[in-house]
Amino acid sequence: MRGSPLLRLILMAAALVIAGVPVWLLTRRSDSPLAVPAAETTATVNCRITLTASAPAVLTVSKLGELVLSTAPGTLTANVTIPVDPSQPDDVVIRGEWSNDASEQALRVEVETEGKDTAVRTFWGRGNVEDVVTP
Amino acid sequence: MNKLVALFLVSAAGILPLAAAPLAVPSLSTVLSDVARNVGGDRVEVVEIVKAGVDPHLFEPTPGDVAKVSKAAIVLASGLGFESYLEKLRTAVGNGPVFFVAGDSVRPMTLEESACDEHHDHHNHHGGPTADPHWWHSVANVQAVASAMAAAFAKADPAGRDVYLANAAAFNKRLAELAKWSRLQIAALPKNKRVLVTSHDALGYFARDYGFEIEAVQGISTSDQPSSQKVRELIDRIRQRGVKAVFAENIENPKVLEQITQETGAKTGGRLYADGLGTGDAGTYEGMIRHNVTTIVAALK
């Protein structure tokens, strides 16, 4: 064990670094959020949404902030088919917009999801109607 | 001055009836105080026994509060065991005032029904069976309470019946718009992100209405203290589910929330008003709901 004190110091420092690195890696605080587990792939089913207005209108359907249907003005009926997770179906926003608000108008919404009964709702409003349906 | 004298003379002549004194209405809830102002309008004077910022779970009425309640015709209470002192207060004031207990006008959720997590112990510290007393987090419940309150005010002040009913109808119409606004805001959140990690388990009705799951640090009352094992389990579940944010309110032990954010990487999503109204924009019921919904959607989106 005899040798240069300088060499022994260097060897001791190297041993400390080798032992310390794993400890530091295990105990350091991570600045970034822990990794989110990868989303499990879930089977989706089709959902057909049909909008029918009482007078010509602009009809839109959006899901999680993204438009999935937008019609030209003067549309009476339109439909769109979207994939949904049957165990956790996300909400869908439907909207009808009329060129004048002189009278009350209706927007009928038919939601046909595979494996479920068809759901029908009617929304009323002047000028526009906007609401949420869940497939 | 001449106008004042003229007005007095006209009133004295019986041509104009002198205005009746407003109905004094002590309130044990900040939410009910706001509902009463909307339903009662100028015909009621709300006396806030429990004020914004006070933890109602820990509130106890003073002798001065008891004196105010005993002089009133009608007293507003949340019920469902929220006011642990309510029976003692009733006994103390005797047969004088009528107690309007809002919880009697709603269909209560049991704690098992509430969206709180299945791993939690459901202790009811309010003395009731197992009802979740935080009914006001469902807008539909507040509509039911407003209608019932209008009927109660009309009974105490029959001359104001039409005013109370019209005010309640107008308020309920605004609440229907509020509920729709909430639905539209929350629709932007995927269902798998609708997890509310909160200080205590107060948002069960909100969770039911909008499809959230609750992971509460404390139990149903702010006086419940979490065990270290419970906190550890909660941290594990937050990690597993990749929850982005946790929400503070009038938590008694902020260190627990800090520990959770540090160990999970979730951020603090902001402050939610769980046990009553706040101040500023959250000083009204509608403002409180808008604040909570906006805070939740912004943090979890």
Entry keywords:
A: 135 residues; 7-stranded antiparallel beta sheet; 1 helix; 17% helix; B: 301 residues; alpha/beta; 10 helices; 43% helix; 12% strand
What would your notes on this structure say?
- The complex is a heterodimer of chains A (about 140) and B (about 300).
- Chain A is an alpha+beta fold.
- The model of chain A is unreliable at about 30-40 (pLDDT under 50).
- Chain A has one helix spanning about 5-25; strands at about 45-65, 65-70, 75-85, 90-95, 105-115, 120-125, 130-135.
- The longest helix of chain A is centred in the N-terminal third of the chain and has 23 residues, at about 5-25.
- In chain A, strands 1, 2, 3, 4, 5, 6 and 7 form a seven-stranded antiparallel sheet that branches.
- In chain A, strand 1 and strand 2 form a beta hairpin.
- Chain B contains ten helices and eight strands.
- Chain B has helices at about 1-10, 30-40, 65-70, 85-95, 140-155, 160-185, 205-210, 230-240, 255-265, 285-300, and strands spanning about 25, 45-50, 75, 100, 195-200, 215, 245-250, 265-270.
- In chain B, helix 2 packs across helix 5 (about 140-155).
- Chain B is globular.
- The termini of chain B are far apart.
- Residues about 10-15 and about 115-130 of chain B have low confidence and may be disordered.
List the helices and strands and how they pair.
The complex is a heterodimer of chains A (135) and B (301).
Chain A: H1 5-27, E1 45-63, E2 66-70, E3 75-84, E4 92-97, E5 105-113, E6 119-125, E7 128-133
Antiparallel strand pairs in A: 1-2, 1-3, 1-4, 1-5, 4-7, 5-6
Chain B: H1 2-12, E1 23-27, H2 30-40, E2 44-48, H3 63-70, E3 74-77, H4 86-93, E4 98-101, H5 139-156, H6 161-186, E5 195-198, H7 204-210, E6 213-216, H8 228-241, E7 245-248, H9 254-264, E8 267-271, H10 285-300
Parallel strand pairs in B: 1-2, 3-4, 5-6, 5-7, 7-8
Helix pairs in contact in B: 2-5, 2-6, 5-6, 6-10, 8-9
